[in-house]
Each structure stands twice: as C-alpha cells, then as structure tokens.
Input
Amino acid sequence: MAKTFSSKVYALVMRIPAGYVYTYGQIARDIGHPRAARQVGTAMRFANDERMPCHRVVNKQGMLSPAYVFGNPHIQRQLLEQEGVAFLPDGRIDLNAHLWDGALHEGM
DNA sequence: GCGCTGACAAAAA
DNA sequence: TTTTTTGCCAGCG
Output
C-alpha cells in the first residue's frame, strides 16, 4: 500500500491515546522514514482536526516547537495536563512516563 | 522539472 | 551542560 508519507503520519497520530505523547522522530521511524522527522511536523501543519491530536505529538525535548496554536501557546499544556500528562519543572513533558509505545505492538 | 522552506534530530564545538 | 551546524525529505513557488 503505497500511501503517502503524511497519510501514514495521520494514521499513527490518530492512534495516540489520551494521556500519552509521541515524538516526531518516533513516528518517522515507525512509518519507515527514520530521517523524515521534519516531514512529520510538516504534515501536522495540515492536521487541524479533532482526530488529529497534534498537541500529543511533541519533539524529543518534550514540547511543541512553534507554540502550537497561534495566540494560545499555553493551551498545549492545559490539554495534556487535562488528559493526565505530567510536566517537568523545566516546562517539558516527562517522555519517560508518557511516551506511547503502543505502535510498537501494532507491527505495521 | 528546479530550487527554497521547514511543527526535527543527532553530532560537533 | 547549552548552542550551533548538517542532514534529511516531503511540500510549495
């Protein structure tokens, strides 16, 4: 199934459960493009739907790069905290505790 | 078809 | 430890 790169990204992002987060690099690797982490973010830019929890997709630092929503850069923290994600005093997400590993079981 | 941009990541200084 | 540079590859002009 030669679907487009972004399509695979969307499918994976939609599978992220509440209370967990995923990293761009992790997604890129899981879909078969270990070096295309940037394109994951580029694809997220088009993703503005309820089925696309882009706020659950963070970088290796544990936070969104461009403030996520234009005008409300803090909404990401509110959403994640509301779903049960813990934040470190550094302002970053505890990836060691909330990094979703469910996709590894899917074996796509 | 060609070149530039970019929601990242890993390596080097 | 943090900051800077390079590579990466899909999207857009």
Summary: Residues 37-46 of chain A form the longest helix (10 residues). Chain A has six helices and two strands. Residues 23-25, 28, 35-45, 47, 54, 57-60, 64-68 of chain A lie near DNA strand B (CB under 10 Å from a C1').
